[in-house]
Amino acid sequence: MEVLFTFVPRENQQERLLAEFPEVNFRFLYKNKSFLPTADIVVTYGEDLTAEDIESAENLKWIMVASAGIEKMPHDAIEDKGIIVSNVKGIHKTPMAESVLAHLLALKRALPFIYRNQRNGEWNRKTKSSELAGSTAVLLGPGAIGSEIGRLLQAFGVRTIGCNRSGKKAPHMDDMVSFEKVLDVLPEADIVISVLPSTAETYHLLKKEHFRAMKEDTIFMNFGRGDLVEDQVMLEALKTGEIGHAVLDVFEEEPLPADHPYWKMDNVIISPHVSSHSGKYVERALDVFIPNLHAWIKGDTSPSNPVDMKRGY
Fold it and tell me: Considering the domain boundaries, does residue 20 fall inside one?
């Protein structure tokens, strides 16, 4: 059996795989797909496979995506060949939840103001600090990541309202609504956080009327995918003061162009799609992959976290 990694794990992580699976021929090659024609399994971040690659992969049966997002993959080509796809849904919840809380606490406790004054050598106690406690947060996409964010927010005394396709209950949400009902709860929100994936249903889901429904001091945070909001809609909401602040980890165009207005806006924090980064990322991905590979070798071709290529998640 051949397993091709299109990224290179650390040496100790490679040794872990080699020791646990002596019967498997592993290839650890950074963006080198020369072994695709003979690979049975491919482990990838999901951004480096093309339809031509899938066509050349004669033996490929399973693609393990070491990421949650699959929007850049050649869906039709993969589906046509009946290749099984799974991802590592859930491993991002700790670093992403911590990133969200870090940004929120920084804004509420006026850390940017404090740091700026330190650089300028200015003793200024007019911080205009506020608190998380007693606020209300609307979380778009209360899955593994959103629920962990909700758990931490509740610990700070924040009321959480989850929003998903069905409106069905989710962990660590005080209330739930469906996408169709989100306009009803946005006027209550002090914080709006999205961790939604990119799908046909979530594409430009938030429109002008959604931002008009928010409070003037609402903090909007997008940690899911940039195509949730059309860029001009986001800009208009920020420029006209329909919302107070935006923390953006994802954008419609990445990297964000150097001449984009966001760079010079005081009410925007730009995070260059790094909220899930962690030194433990690949380690956690292998914790998902290794049990699935053991099961695969024994004939179980149903890995955990299967992805429906038609739905996009």
Answer: yes
Cα–Cα distance for residue pair 35/296, rounded to 1 Å: 20
pLDDT digits (tens, 9 = 90+) for 97-136: 999 999 999 999 999 999 999 999 999 999 999 999 999 9
186 touches 210 (CB < 8 A): yes
Token pair belonging to 121: 């050598």
Provide the number of structural domains found in the chain.
2
Q: Are residues 266 and 144 in the same domain?
A: yes
- Say if residues 166 and 145 touch (Cβ distance below 8 Å): no
- Residue 159 burial by CB count (10 A; 0-12/13-18/19+): exposed, middle or buried? middle
- Type and span of the H or E element at 140: strand 136-140
> What six digits make up the tokens of 230?
């059309």
Q: pTM for the whole thing? A: 0.88
Residue 37 domain boundaries: 2-89+279-297
Q: Which single residue is written with the structure tokens 């299967």? A: 306
Which pLDDT score is estimated for 257?
Answer: 97
